[in-house]
Amino acid sequence: MSEKPEKVLLAYSGGLDTSVIVPWLKETYGVDVICFAANLGQGDEELKGLEEKALASGASKCYIEDLRQEFIEEHLYPVMKAGAIYERKYLLGTSIARPLIARRQVEIAEMEGADAVAHGATGKGNDQVRFELTYKALNPKLRVIAPWRDPKWHIRSREDALQYAREHGVPVQQTEKSIYSRDANLWHISHEGGLLENPWQEPEEVMYQYSVSPEEAPDKPEYVEIEFVEGEPKKINGTAMGPISLLTTLNALGGKHAIGRVDLVENRLVGMKSRGVYETPGGTILFTAHRELESLTLDRETMHFKDIIAVRYADLVYDGRWYTPLREALDAFVTRTQENVTGTVRLKLYKGNLIVAGRKAPRSLYREDYASFGQMDVYDQSDAEGFINLFGLPMKVEALVDLEGMGRSKYRQPDYTKFKRD
After folding, report:
1. Is the pLDDT of residue 417 over 70?
2. Catalytic residue chosen out of the listed positions 68, 98, 327, 359
3. Are residues 147 and 219 in the same domain?
4. What share of the chain in percent tops pLDDT 90?
5. Which residues form the domain of 282?
6. How many CB atoms lie within 10 A of CB 85?
7. Could you confirm whether 181 is annotated as catalytic?
């Protein structure tokens, strides 16, 4: 690999940082810069005029590709079916987007004959890892340029970036920057920075973008029915929808009823804790409905084991290890578990609450005649005695050993009533 790259493929958002990275790469390395931006549902405002801006910043070319359907079907749905939630709350909206962006970035780099890739992630966050692990997994021969870690990078503040942009004729909006750092896509929007850096501070209401507050949500609850086929949502209230329309519909519905707000102090991969606030209205509805359908269709041992691997799956996604044999193997297991996860779940949405109102499945393992507390012929309750005797045999043997050796089981507490004060 030559010391000096000749053509760089930059993951480009059009924000201030990646906008100034374009001329910085040209000035620092003397390279041809090609930009790539992925449409993952972040909104028309962020995508508007992106190509023109990239070219005006000095890029020779700019790719903008709509990856929304691929994002949902090949990334979001597998995460949902796995039940993967990071540290009990985070539905992985930013984490799961990065490997897709980086993969397509590598593909375009190869197509354009680029010998390097670049990103605008800082040296303190998780995204640098997610981008670069994907580069390594798909084409380790590409050189990686991470300006925020580069000793030649002298831009350390927004003011520095604006000054550099003015000096190099980079078009940037001169509007007041939000105090929050945000990442948005069709699945969620995240908020970091500002007063959120103090975990004692309550988030201000004006910060939220995708959802109203519970206080402002309608006073009347709303019901929604979601129909799944082999673990994937296909219909809302009986109407068939494609992945983009379905998730867009649920985002609007959930946001209207204050669904999907999460305030989390999380452990970053790089070793520090950070606080983030996430809005995932549609995703929260889907996770809840999917879990309820699984309660009907998965047997006990499979469900319990699936819960175990869900934590591991979430770690893999959060850490950017999407393109790994382990993730592929876990997907094979999850896919097998979803064969009977077909049915409908009815939810009631009310002021930030998701209340399960009904669930049904053609392959349900729930049998009313078995579960009933009334008169039944299918279950002989006297059979339970033998089961309990066998199930409790190890505990019984250990207790007998304790009684014969010490006079009492080690799990029994002393009788303190025997000790009286004089």
Report:
1. no
2. 98
3. no
4. 81
5. 181-298+340-363
6. 19
7. yes
Q: In what order do the strands lie in the sheet with 222-229?
A: 239-240, 232-236, 222-229, 343-350, 353-360
Check residue 270 and give its pLDDT.
87
- Does 421 participate in catalysis according to the annotation? no
Distance (Å) of CA 246 to CA 215, 256, 291: 26, 16, 18
Amino acid at 331: D
Whether pLDDT at 409 is above 70: no
> What's residue 175's pLDDT?
43
In the set 127, 211, 327, 359, the catalytic residue is: 127
Q: Which pLDDT value is given to residue 177?
A: 64
Among the three residues 363, 397, 412, which one is the final residue of a domain in this structure? 363
Answer yes or no: 312 catalytic.
no
Both tokens of 246, joined, read 């379905």
Q: How many domains does the chain have?
A: 2
Which residue of the set 17, 150, 319, 402 is catalytic? 17
Closest CA to 232 of 393, 69, 382, 357: 69
Tell me how far apart the alpha carbons of residues 39 and 300 are, in angstroms, rounded to a whole number: 40
Q: What is the pLDDT at residue 402?
A: 85
- 44 included as an active-site residue: no
Nearest residue to 357 via CA among 244, 222, 258: 222
Tens-digit pLDDT profile for residues 77-129: 999 999 999 999 999 999 999 999 999 999 999 999 999 999 999 988 899 99
**Choice among 181, 263, 295, 402 that is catalytic:** 181
User: pTM value?
Assistant: 0.91
231 shares a domain with 148: no
